[in-house]
Design a protein that fits this description.
about 450 residues; single chain; alpha/beta
Length: about 450
């Protein structure tokens, strides 16, 4: 039996906004030009096999609005019990894709229900003059959210890049830490505190944990730095945003994969955000991380590293025999000492690319260290800030130190064994190839 469903929805592609175009750049250079798109509205009626849904049903979707700066903002004032359409996925053209589409919508509904305190406080539109996402709340307090996310990966140079980004006068950090001298780079609200999962939870899940309310988070987003400077963009430098969904199996029992990812979350809150992902040779990344956390225990040696690699590779490959790649990448079962899954970059990059498209810029640590001026200039262009004076930028880089490096620990412990390197290179190679194909660049082969 066939039943007819009518889906009323908005297919949205953000049109390029002159407000976002940085001054001082030659768009005829190799730097990617901002592409234009259109906003389309459609209504479709699809025939769906009744067995697909187990009977007839009505789906009422939320409405979406766009303000003067072409920012699409969900009208969250409507009923949160409605199934909310994906902000980034078009309605499928063929019936055979309807099931996956509906599954995605239902999955996203979990996000809105568990973060009701977030969406209840968001405005229907953001202030069009500000380059961060700003508004006045019901108490007439000025609030802002970041519009730039340095979202990964750990031990890929994110701390150093964040420090370099802060050199630009149109970029600023958040202000969650009590001391002005404390690093404001990362705060872990979106990936951990929002859902009440502190860092220690997986290792010692004792007693109830309390999530941080969105109203508390807003107190430290850096709004005060933006209020009198509309050109300023707040940067959130939390690298775990790219990959951290740990504990999802406990939160959503019975599901084969996480119902949503952090890309879905950030897009739902600040859809025009610019995303930066910094990656490196995954074999080198893994060993660098192993060395970095060696101060937690003196049992870390090249020989011990090899033994743990063998165990974790076997565990990951065993997971693939039973579950999907996405499930295995986001699995909470992996060792906290040796996070092999984080080097399967294509899992996480593809999720963000699917949502943010051209607003995602992926950089390798090698190109950043080898060509810092060119790389930073491209990053500034991608973000949308003014082009820096290249001489000033060169002097700044020349006189600054590289942040958060592992040299002392590497000298103490030594290089990884050749047999370990070979084992890891062989494991990561097919995933590097997939990433290279996805992004259309051979630099992601890491050869």
């Amino acid at each position: 039996m066939l039943v007819s469903f009518s889906f009323y929805y908005t297919t949205t592609v953000i049109k390029s906004d002159s407000r976002l175009e940085p001054a001082g750049y030659d768009t005829n250079t190799d730097i990617r030009e901002t592409s234009e798109a259109v906003i389309q509205n459609e209504t479709k009626s699809l025939l769906v096999d009744e067995a697909l849904q187990g009977g007839s049903m009505a789906i009422e979707v939320l409405s979406f609005q766009h303000d003067e700066r072409n920012t699409i903002v969900p009208s969250f004032k409507q009923k949160t019990t409605n199934i909310k359409p994906s902000l980034h996925q078009n309605m499928p053209e063929s019936i055979d894709k309807v099931e996956s589409f509906l599954t995605k919508q239902k999955s996203l509904q979990i996000l809105f229900e568990e973060s009701k305190d977030v969406f209840d406080l968001l405005p229907e539109t953001y202030m069009p003059d500000y380059k961060s996402f700003c508004w006045y709340d019901s108490q007439e307090e000025f609030q802002c959210l970041a519009s730039v996310y340095l979202a990964g990966m750990p031990k890929c140079g994110t701390t150093d890049l964040f420090d370099k980004l802060m050199w630009h006068p149109q970029l600023t950090e958040q202000s969650h830490r009590p001391k002005a001298t404390d690093s404001q780079k990362e705060y872990f609200y979106w990936s951990r505190l929002r859902i009440g999962r502190p860092e220690w939870f997986l290792a010692k899940p004792k007693g109830p944990v309390h999530k941080q309310l969105f109203s508390q988070f807003l107190a430290g987003t850096g709004s005060e730095k933006v209020k009198n400077n509309k050109e300023t963009r707040i940067v959130d430098g939390t690298p775990s945003l790219l990959w951290d969904l740990r504990g999802w199996e406990t939160r959503y029992p019975g599901l084969d994969e996480p119902p949503y990812n952090n890309a879905d979350l950030i897009y739902a809150v600040t859809p025009e955000s610019k995303i930066l992902a910094l990656v490196r040779n995954p074999t080198e990344r893994l060993y660098s991380e192993y060395l970095y956390f060696s101060t937690a225990g003196r049992d870390r040696t090249p020989q011990q590293f090899h033994l743990e690699v063998v165990v974790e590779l076997k565990k990951f490959n065993s997971c693939l025999e039973k579950k999907t790649l996405k499930n295995c990448c986001y699995s909470s079962e992996h060792s906290l000492r040796l996070r092999i899954a984080l080097g399967v970059y294509v899992c996480f990059i593809s999720d963000f690319l699917d949502v943010f498209g051209g607003n995602l810029l992926t950089i390798t640590l090698n190109e950043y260290y080898s060509h810092p001026i060119e790389t930073l200039t491209n990053i500034f262009y991608h973000i949308g800030v003014t082009k820096p004076n290249l001489e000033d930028l060169e002097n700044f880089i020349k006189n600054s130190k590289t942040s958060n490096v592992n040299k002392i620990e590497k000298l103490r412990i030594g290089d990884m064994l050749n047999e370990t390197k070979k084992l890891l290179d062989e494991f990561y190679s097919p995933y590097n190839s997939k990433l290279s194909k996805l992004l259309g660049d051979t630099k992601f082969l890491f050869r």
